Hints:
CATH architecture of the largest domain: 3-Layer(bba) Sandwich
Strand content: 25-35%
Shape: globular
CATH class of the largest domain: Alpha Beta
Structural class: alpha/beta
Helix content: 25-40%
Low-confidence stretches: 369-375
Number of domains: 3
Mean pLDDT: 95
Distance between the termini: 43 Å
Order of helices and strands: EHEHEHEHEHEEHEEEEEEEEHEEEHH
Number of helices: 9
Amino acid sequence: xxxxxxxxxxxxxxxxxxxxxxxxxxxxxxxxxxxxxxxxxxxxxxxxxxxxxxxxxxxxxxxxxxxxxxxxxxxxxxxxxxxxxxxxxxxxxxxxxxxxxxxxxxxxxxxxxxxxxxxxxxxxxxxxxxxxxxxxxxxxxxxxxxxxxxxxxxxxxxxxxxxxxxxxxxxxxxxxxxxxxxxxxxxxxxxxxxxxxxxxxxxxxxxxxxxxxxxxxxxxxxxxxxxxxxxxxxxxxxxxxxxxxxxxxxxxxxxxxxxxxxxxxxxxxxxxxxxxxxxxxxxxxxxxxxxxxxxxxxxxxxxxxxxxxxxxxxxxxxxxxxxxxxxxxxxxxxxxxxxxxxxxxxxxxxxxxxxxxxxxxxxxxxxxxxxxxxx
Length: 375
């Protein structure tokens, strides 16, 4: 029987970063993934590092996003040093383009909101926006520049974190199907993996949108897949330095010259096919944002499945089952929140405490909802 201090279900960026953190804290860690680690939603993401809320419902995770963004430079540097691999980190900010006739009013609202949340945001005229990014459409009426934001090559980062984790002592088990948590009364004693018990003092469920399929975890992690389609573009005469953002699309430049465009949000179960409608939606919005995209070559299309909780908020922290922790439900913020999620899990495992108030993101909130509904 395999025995570890901590057993982690899920080898994406969240699970791998938690494994890395725990190993560096001196724990013996086993990382289990049903496929090849790093080939799930972490592989399919865009890698935008932005704590800015996309809607009012996301305001509550801004403090987590800010904290995680602040960790990123040191996190990347450490991972790159240990792994010997580049993570494709680009700290060049985000430019959000506004097209509406009431752009100036909307601009003031966005700036005020961001400042109220402790986020840096600068108003930019249409002319200055095109000075910064000549590829922007002439129809842009104004823009918001968020200088602290960044992006990362999520595929490269995930690979580097997995390498750094293994070099730090983590044992990785690919092609290992985690079937259930192993319970003994009010305690979690590990995982059942392909019919074999894996013994551990601490067990972390970080299997993305598959977390709810692990027997015993669904009540704490009732996540479902939210499909997102993406496109990779390349054009010799199209240069974009910063992440470009609009209400309908984002464009993310990579160090190798590619530009990623995405992404849709679709609730279609675990189906990951790329559709004509999805591609058309992305390209139409991309052309509105940066018309020169019309001459770009489409190098790759793909779809990924984000883990989405019923309230669209992350699920992070301990449960009422001693030894069981959850780290999933990050929805569209998984890449951004990986280092801070790992820090929170490591703090709980090593001290049974945390540096951030995370009650709102507790796995126990779903049981509370169920109890309130039944009462």
